[in-house]
Amino acid sequence: MTTRCMMQAVYFCSGTLPESDFWHYGLASEIYTHFTSPIRRYADVIVHRLLAECISGNNGINYDQSLLLDKVKMKELCDVLNNRNRMAQQAGRSSVEVYTNLFFRDKIMEDEAYVVRVMKNGFSVLIPK
Fold first, then answer.
1. Verdict on whether the full-model pTM lies above 0.70
2. With pLDDT > 70 as the criterion, what percentage of the chain qualifies?
3. What is the DSSP letter of 122?
4. How much of the chain exceeds pLDDT 90, in percent?
5. CA-CA distance, 118 to 25, in Å (whole number)?
6. Which helix (H) or strand (E) is 49 found in, with range?
7. What is the distance between the alpha carbons of residues 88 and 23, in angstroms, rounded to a whole number?
8. CA distances from 106 to 25, 59, 101 (A)
9. Cα 32 to Cα 20: distance, rounded to the nearest angstrom
10. Which residue of 57, 71, 82, 108 is most buried, as measured by CB atoms within 10 A?
11. CA distances from 11 to 22, 59, 115 (A)
12. pLDDT at 1
């Protein structure tokens, strides 16, 4: 719940934003990039390719260099990656919500609770127990 209040990390093309936007709040770092194993996510493959290109060119690896060197194309790709990431996070949260509702569907529980938020379609409660 705490991290949902924080600014979402996003992929961006460094040539499309000022350097002052490169910072990482949680790490207190002025410039930052993140990637993991490229077998997991396409975004990590792109970061690996960009870093390889910066260091020494593609070293014979077969991929479209024009994508990596075109700021407009890279910005469009980052926008797609960010959108897909948000959709995946929402799908995960929705899945938890569905299965939580299925679990409690036929159960009646009584316990002390505090109503913390009232919305049009329901309410949120805090159950100290």
1. no
2. 85
3. E
4. 31
5. 32
6. helix 42-56
7. 24
8. 44, 60, 9
9. 11
10. 82
11. 10, 25, 37
12. 57
How does the average pLDDT of the chain come out, rounded? 83
CA–CA distances in Å: residue 20 to residues 23, 27, 33, 55, 97: 7, 15, 14, 24, 38
User: Rg (Cα) of the chain, in Å, rounded?
Assistant: 21
How confident is the model over 50-87, as pLDDT tens digits? 777 777 765 666 667 777 778 888 889 889 988 998 99
User: At which residue do the structure tokens 């897909």 appear?
Assistant: 84
User: Measuring CA to CA, how many Å separate 42 from each of 17, 28, 30, 81?
Assistant: 22, 26, 25, 8
Please give the full DSSP string across 59-110, using - where no structure is assigned: TT--S-HHHHH-HHHHHHHHHHHHHHHHHHHHHHHHHHHHHHHHHHTT----
